[in-house]
Amino acid sequence: MYSVIAPVPGRVRKLATDLHPELVAFEHVRQTHSCLLKRLGDASQAHLTHLQRRTHRALENTAAVDATITGIDYFDDPPIGSAPVVYLSVDSPGLEAIHTELIETFDPIDDLEGDDYVPHITLARGGDTATARRLADREIDPITWTVTELEFWNGTEKVPASRVPLSSRSL
Q: Which Pfam families match (predicted)?
């Protein structure tokens, strides 16, 4: 599965690491962290090149955007996979605009994208709701950063396939 993601800075990864002891009760704890912007599906190498070109064209005039981790929350009933899903909330009108641009270029996945899109960084999934609720009640200091590039993420290999730089001009 290929996706377009916004990589996160070390401060966000450190927060996820600091929260790890409280996440071990969940079935699946994420080891890598990013903000998913658009799923692109499975692709052969030739098809991936086509997807990359379409994405670059769609985002060619897109400026770097700010994003802020504002807290911890959870999805009690996600459309796919085990529940609950504990995540870091991401406030970023810029990332939401990029998501909108990408779903105008690539069809949205029902119940996950478009109007249902919630910018977030998944920490863990599959566990009890009481633990998720306790984590969501925890206060954290906001973390703000500037997203200057996006990545084509190869979900099978768990590595970036390429990068999409965002322009340095402000929105």
A: 2_5_RNA_ligase2
